[in-house]
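Lecture 7 notes: from sequence to structure.

We start with a single chain of 320 residues. Read the sequence below before looking at the structure.
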Amino acid sequence: MENILLISNEPERWDSFEKGLRGSYRFIISNPAEKINFSNANLVAIDKVEYIEKIPAMEKRKLPIVFFGNPGDFSTEINARKLGVADFFSQPFNKEIFLLRFRNIRANNENIRWMQMIRREMIYVQDCMAEILAQTVESRDKNTGGHILRTATFIGILGEEFVECGTLTREQVDLIVRAALLHDVGKIGVRDSILLKPGPLTDEERLEMMSHPEKGANLIKTMQKRFESHTYLQYAYDIALNHHEYFDGKGYPNGKKGEEIPFWARLMSVVDVYDALVSDRVYRNGMPKDKAFEIIFNGSGTQFDPVILKAFDNCKDLMI
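Now the structure, written as tokens:
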């Protein structure tokens, strides 16, 4: 037998419901002033709109909510339905109709849960495809092994500094970390002879290498059209296109400056350069961290945003 969790400080008002449904549903009464246990509930019933706030978001996703109210109280019914209540019941009632409506509510809830599960699986598959694409690009260049994962880690550490002051939310930092994996995806359009060259590039080769931000942004734009809408792909687009822009406007590809450059791209530019400086390459060893820090801080106001460098200084010892 399934359980209806009734949240009410006047449960006696609904005795007729409990008696009429006896044998089909068992009522569990919970006082809204006390801690509510949802573990045995199959369905939640409330009789005041404000009780909806007492239901945790996770339980709202799992359990259908119905409202027990007065007949003809359309204002309350409208407010309750706007807040996610699945159905509204009043006295007197017909048991057979009541059970049919309950059955439909449960069926709809199951369908929604299945759709949510399928959507989560689709998002997971799409995320995996994006990560594999990023790793495929990196696997072409033996000089930069592990770069995308390290920079994604570093940008998460740096982003956390801005959660504490309210500039970013933790959800945004999570999206930025996922987006960071695609920052160099445009290198898939750069020839191996340039990407793998162990020495300095010619002017012509440098121009082709400098095209990778726009190529990456175009590829991500295509992904946005093909994939289900993902917020993180907009972050990825911003980062891929703008992570080589300079704070003073002397970067590429578009010469943006200051706050014209998306904030997350300004974060990426710092950790991208830091990792490039301290990492070994076929043609050189990575430099000591103190030297890398010196170079980065010397770029304050020119290559890098001074505000972000202040945060970087706070967490630089975590960049290992």
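Residues 122-318 form a domain with the Hypothetical protein af1432 fold (CATH 1.10.3210.10). Keep this in mind for problem set 3.
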